[in-house]
Amino acid sequence: MRPIQMVDTKSQYLHIKEEVDKAIHEVLDTAAYINGKPVQDFTAALSAYLGVKHTIPCANGTDALQIAMMALNLQPGDEVITPSFTYIATTEVVALLRLTPVFVEVDPQTFCIDPVSVRKAITPKTKAIVPVHLYGHAAPMEEILAIAKEHNLYVIEDNAQAIGCDYTFTDGTKKKTGTMGTIGATSFYPSKNLGAFGDGGALFTNDDNLAHQMKMIANHGQQKRYYHEVVGCNSRLDSIQAAVLHIKLKKLDEYNAARAAVAAFYNKAFAGNAKIVTPYVANYSAHVYHQYTLQLRGVDRDALVSYLAEHKIPSMIYYPVPGHKQDMFASFGLSKTNMPVTDSLTDAVISLPIHTEMDEEQLSYISTHVLQFINQ
Predict the structure, then answer these.
(1) Any idea what the CATH number is for the domain that residue 126 is in?
(2) Is the Cβ–Cβ distance between 314 and 5 less than 8 Å?
(3) Residues 268 and 347 occupy one common structural domain
(4) I need a labelling partner for 213 at 20 to 30 A (CA). Which of 126, 226, 277, 349 fits?
(5) Quick one: 265 and 161 in the same domain?
(6) What pLDDT is recorded for position 330?
(7) CA nearest 200: which of 69, 43, 44?
(8) Residue 110: pLDDT above 90?
């Protein structure tokens, strides 16, 4: 059996090696390392794939969120609603820009932001909502968009974990995650469903003015060289990463289908076990399984992690400390916020290996050992 990894980017590369190597050498031959033709080609292809008017590339997913908030001209003290149960980057940029993070609960089944909690958290200072499409499942965007419209709020979709995921509205309309809010933001970190060979990110919008503003912000606040209209930053997707991503974009649906097949194997293996809750899929969402995350019931999670490691099976806990309990937000006095769902999930979740290159031998080995420990 091949060694089991949480993510196997090398094996994925080997399947597209010839095409990727050729594309990288073409960049080297042209020496157009920054903002070269591969960047333009990739962003145009990604816009077409997502069905969005504008794609603005940048250096990473965290920058994408920051640029989005800067483009919306959010001011110090403005409140931004976001789930506490997510990766820290989502709220890190809120504090970085001296905005006020307002943490809310998530749905215990989908792990995504809870609209009821969002509505309760709105104050006169609220300016934006940041729903996170966590683990590859879409947040309840129809409800979030309705709340935002009612209160005149911006919606910034954190789509770092769900690119390619379809959302279905009650009228049957389908849209890709990252394209429904005011702005969408994503990451091309190597382990993502659409991953580069380094860092990378992008923003999405259908608003011409916002697209113009975000392009300037990502390029030192300029549209004409040396003429800086706004305070910006230096955040670019380089040509080599764009060339790689353009190749992998053509396979994104195939990659997501492979992840779904892995999830289906696990689901079948764990079906009916009272101590395991497999990932839930809401009727409005597809699932692209950036992570395959279980909830455990009456199981010593740390002991399970150790047991799996002893048998050379990696696992991860995403996320053991929620945002409202992180030291970086101590000045906001949030550590004692009552968030029972979030606190429960941080104690109960465990993610198993999932990626595009897994085979049935590996999956059988993993699921067998999980069940052996839980049923002992």
Answers:
(1) 3.40.640.10
(2) yes
(3) yes
(4) 126
(5) no
(6) 87
(7) 43
(8) yes
Same domain, 271 and 183: no
CA–CA distance, 163 with 181 (Å, rounded to integer)? 14
**Max Cα distance, the chain (Å):** 68
- Rounded to two decimals, the pTM is 0.96
User: Residue 282: its pLDDT value, please?
Assistant: 98
| 31: region left, alpha or beta (phi > 0 left; psi from -120 to 50 alpha) | left
Residues 326 and 346 grouped into a single domain: yes
Domain shared by 236 and 263, yes or no: no
Cα 270 to Cα 161, 265, 277, 279, 354, distances in angstroms: 24, 9, 8, 11, 15
The Cα 328–Cα 324 span in angstroms is: 9
| Helices vs strands, H then E, count in the chain | 13, 14
Q: For the chain, what percent of residues have pLDDT higher than 70?
A: 100
Indicate if 321 and 337 belong to the same structural domain.
yes
Question: pLDDT tens for residues 281-306?
Answer: 999 999 999 999 999 999 999 999 99
In which residue are the tokens 């809010």 written? Answer: 181
Domain ranges, residue 321: 252-375
Give tens-digit pLDDT for 252-280: 999 999 999 999 999 999 999 999 999 99
Alpha helices in the chain (DSSP H): 9-15, 17-30, 37-50, 61-71, 89-96, 115-121, 141-151, 208-218, 239-249, 252-270, 301-310, 340-348, 360-375
pLDDT digits (tens, 9 = 90+) for 66-85: 999 999 999 999 999 999 99
Are residue 182 and residue 216 in the same domain, yes or no?
Answer: yes
Q: What are phi and psi of 57, to 5 degrees?
A: -75, 155
